[in-house]
Structures are given as structure tokens and as C-alpha cells.
Design goal:
Distance between the termini of chain A: 10 Å
Number of helices of chain B: 2
Oligomer: heterodimer
Strand content of chain B: under 5%
Structural class of chain B: mainly alpha
Radius of gyration of chain A: 21 Å
Distance between the termini of chain B: 23 Å
Number of domains of chain A: 1
Number of helices of chain A: 6
Helix content of chain B: over 70%
Helix content of chain A: over 70%
Structural class of chain A: mainly alpha
Largest sheet of chain B: none
Largest interface: A-B, 12 and 12 residues
Number of strands of chain B: 0
Radius of gyration of chain B: 16 Å
Order of helices and strands of chain A: HHHHHH
Number of strands of chain A: 0
Number of domains of chain B: 1
């Protein structure tokens, strides 16, 4: 009997924890997107005023951004500085892959960022700025949509965690 | 038949209804349908043996 009760308690703790994790995950995604927007705006300013190389600009961005986003730009800057002979796009993909577990970005965000990498270091500064504008517009749109849905989803994930835990407990009792 | 099975089925029914409503309000109709179907299959899995027993008893009772 006590084994059942302890098991049920553990299942409930686990499922409620999962519910809270999934609700927090969306907030972390919004935070990462905001951080990416900050990084892109810094890059835009670097292009306009500093005229620094891409590696230097990314190094500066990495210093001014937190978490996984900072890690992506740090990795990218290091890869550019090493100059292994690959294209900037491939290095960008490598940097994104290396920081895959440090960010909460969804696959659709990743696709936009990969697309953004295609224009890195390609043609003139106008081209770069247009790519930044496009990525920032995507981030703005996504952030607004996520924030709108956040409250509803938060309550949904909490309820799902509790009800799902109870269901599993009843089935296994 | 163990009476606790009835309580378990009732509990699953209530919880599946709650999950269904929560998912529908969250705009996830497909998942809500899947949860409902999973609940039905689970309960059927529990009672299918008992239904078979019921038919066996009926056949014996009426000597069919």
C-alpha cells in the first residue's frame, strides 16, 4: 500500500513538473528570440558605424548577449577567426548546431536563422541589413504571437500535467 | 469481478473528459480526440475479458 502511495506521489511530482517545464519552455523561447533580436540589432549597428569584420562584430555581440544566443555568436566568431576555408554559411550552421542544446528555439526559428546565415558576408552592407530586417520582423511577429498565447498555454500545460499524472496513477494503481 | 475496476473506469472517464476539455480550450482538437480514443481503448482493454465471461455465463445459463 505504501509502495503504491509513494509511486503515485512520484508520478504526480513528475507529471506536474513536466507541465511546468513545458509552460516555462515557451517563456524561454520568447527570451531567446528577444536575445537574438538584440544580437541582430547590434550587428546592424556594427555594420553601420563600426565597419568591423564579421568575426569582430560577432565577438562583440557575444559579449553583449546572454545564454545560448551569446554562445552561437561566440562559436561563429571563433570559427570565422580559425578560417577553415568553409563558407560563412557552413560555419554559421556549425555554430547553430553546437549551441542546439543551449537554446529553446523551435525548428521554425532555426529555419529562419539558417536562412539568415545564407546572406552573412555575402554582397554589400545593404544586403546584410535587409536580411537582418527580415529576421527581426520574423522575431517580432513570433514574439507577439507567443506572448498572446502564453497565458492560455501556461494554464493548459499546468492542467495537463495534473490531469495526466492522475490518469497515469489511476491506470497503474 | 473486483469492484475497484468500476471505480478505475469512472476515474479514467472523468480524467479523460477533463483532458479533452483542456485540450479543446487550448485549440488542440486533434490531440483531444486522440486522448478520448486512447481512453476508450484503455477501458475496452480492461473490460473485454469480463464481457467474454458474461457471454460465456449467458450461454451456460440458457444452454446455448
Amino acid at each position: 500500500m505504501w509502495g503504491n502511495i509513494i509511486g503515485a506521489g512520484l508520478i504526480m511530482v513528475g507529471s506536474v513538473g513536466l507541465g511546468f517545464y513545458f509552460s516555462a519552455k515557451e517563456n524561454f523561447r520568447v527570451r531567446d528570440l528577444a536575445e537574438f533580436k538584440k544580437a541582430l540589432l547590434i550587428l546592424s549597428s556594427e555594420i553601420d558605424f563600426m565597419r568591423s569584420t564579421l568575426a569582430e562584430a560577432c565577438k562583440n555581440i557575444a559579449k553583449r548577449t546572454d545564454g545560448g544566443v551569446g554562445e552561437i555568436f561566440e562559436n561563429f566568431s571563433n570559427l570565422l577567426a580559425q578560417g577553415e576555408g568553409e563558407t560563412a554559411y557552413q560555419l554559421w550552421l556549425t555554430a547553430l548546431d553546437a549551441a542546439r542544446n543551449s537554446t529553446f528555439l523551435a525548428s521554425e526559428d532555426r529555419l529562419v536563422l539558417e536562412d539568415f546565415g545564407k546572406t552573412l558576408g555575402y554582397l554589400d552592407k545593404e544586403m546584410q541589413k535587409n536580411a537582418i530586417t527580415y529576421a527581426v520582423a520574423y522575431i517580432d511577429e513570433k514574439t507577439t504571437a507567443l506572448q498572446k498565447a502564453a497565458d492560455k498555454n501556461k494554464r493548459m500545460y499546468h492542467s495537463l500535467g495534473i490531469a495526466g499524472g492522475l490518469l497515469v496513477t489511476v491506470v497503474l494503481w | 469481478m473486483d469492484i475497484s475496476l468500476l471505480f478505475q473506469i469512472a476515474a479514467v472517464g472523468i480524467l479523460v473528459t477533463v483532458l479533452n476539455q483542456v485540450l479543446k480550450n487550448g485549440g488542440r482538437d486533434e490531440q483531444a480526440t486522440m486522448v478520448t480514443i486512447a481512453g476508450i481503448v484503455l477501458v475496452l482493454f480492461w473490460i473485454v475479458g469480463h464481457i467474454a465471461d458474461l457471454f460465456t455465463h449467458l450461454r451456460e445459463m440458457f444452454e446455448l
